[in-house]
Amino acid sequence: MFTGIIAEQGRVLSVERNGDVSATVRLHAPGSTEGLALGGSVAVNGVCLTATAIDGKDFSVDVMGETLVRSTIGELGAGDTVNLERCVPAGGRLDGHVVQGHVDGVGELLEREALGNWDRLRFGVPVRLARYIAEKGSIAVDGVSLTVTGVSDAAESAPWFEVGLIPTTLAETGLGAKSIGSKVNLEVDVLAKYTERLLAFAGGPATRSAATGNATGTGDVK
User: Which one of 6, 96, 142, 178 is most buried, by most CB atoms within 10 A?
Assistant: First the structure.
């Protein structure tokens, strides 16, 4: 488990691709390798990955094809910077919110505006994820725990959400350098996903059918 509080920005040293099947990413991360053991979990831009090799201040992770397709990890190249967070130890402080490192989808930066001592960022979000994002709720963007400050209307065909970034977040995470059109990993609040799943089973088969869109044929297609 993670909290969305970024420990450092690591640097990609190399990416060895095996087509779309898998990849090995080697990272320079002096602040994250101390105490890191083989098999340890590290969130890389919000994606929970396992350390498969450790060499001083560098470590490597293996990435399967599913992750390459469903996150921005597949777009990384040598020299890129990434947000890094080690998993939370038992009894550790939960400063952000519960982040699993299981990316739900990829968003796109649509707008950014500097407003004195903070920036407003608007991200486009896949239609299938919009229902899980609520104003004043939590979301992880490239692994950064953020509070949602605004959301699009439920009827909009191109949903979006907004967040506000303080100077510390702008300086200490990769979000400060994102430009319009940049892609980001999104993980919605896990409580929203489990709540929906529980409600889908609450009323028996008829309710389950309606909840999944089978009764009316209006389920998500994106």
Answer: 142
